[in-house]
TrEMBL record:
<dbReference type="GO" id="GO:0015035">
    <property type="term" value="F:protein-disulfide reductase activity"/>
</dbReference>
<dbReference type="InterPro" id="IPR013766">
    <property type="entry name" value="Thioredoxin_domain"/>
</dbReference>
<protein>
    <submittedName>
        <fullName>Thioredoxin domain-containing protein</fullName>
    </submittedName>
</protein>
<comment type="similarity">
    <text>Belongs to the thioredoxin family.</text>
</comment>
<dbReference type="GO" id="GO:0005829">
    <property type="term" value="C:cytosol"/>
</dbReference>
<feature type="domain" description="Thioredoxin">
    <location>
        <begin position="1"/>
        <end position="106"/>
    </location>
</feature>
<dbReference type="Pfam" id="PF00085">
    <property type="entry name" value="Thioredoxin"/>
</dbReference>
<keyword id="KW-0676">Redox-active center</keyword>
<dbReference type="InterPro" id="IPR036249">
    <property type="entry name" value="Thioredoxin-like_sf"/>
</dbReference>
<dbReference type="GO" id="GO:0045454">
    <property type="term" value="P:cell redox homeostasis"/>
</dbReference>
Length: 128
């Protein structure tokens, strides 16, 4: 199960988290959000306690949606120490998402520093 975060709990659960957080902005009506959810659960299982995964309903949390300038759903933000380190949106398909998640996972597995920053171009993702 993935922790559901709201505007009320965002600061504590995401910005003040001692570990990096992958934030999944989604909505109940979003078909692609439902398709990627099992992939995100698999990613969470592979990362153990190195990366936290949370869901945010973009419709119910308009201030957060506006603050992070959501253009499409799903949008994934990797936030570490309160800073957006990676933005993943506009998926071209399942493989595109899997590649991006694998790059994130590998960057945490390989380094003593919790995060190496590959560029979004390395992941085939566009930045906002």
């Amino acid at each position: 199960m993935v922790l559901s975060v709201s505007e009320r709990t965002f600061t504590q659960e995401v910005l003040e988290s001692p570990i990096p957080v992958l934030v999944n902005f989604e909505a109940p009506w979003c078909g692609l959000c439902r398709i990627i959810h099992p992939l995100l659960l698999q990613f969470k299982a592979q990362c153990n306690e190195k990366i936290k995964l949370v869901d945010i309903n973009a419709d119910d949390n308009f201030k957060l949606s506006t603050r992070y300038r959501l253009k499409s759903l799903p949008t994934l933000l990797l936030i570490e120490n309160g800073i957006v380190r990676r933005r993943l949106e506009g998926f071209r398909g399942r493989e595109d998402l899997l590649q991006a998640l694998e790059e994130i996972k590998l960057s945490y597995d390989k380094s003593s520093h919790p995060y190496n920053t590959p560029t979004t171009a390395d992941l085939g993702c566009r930045s906002a």
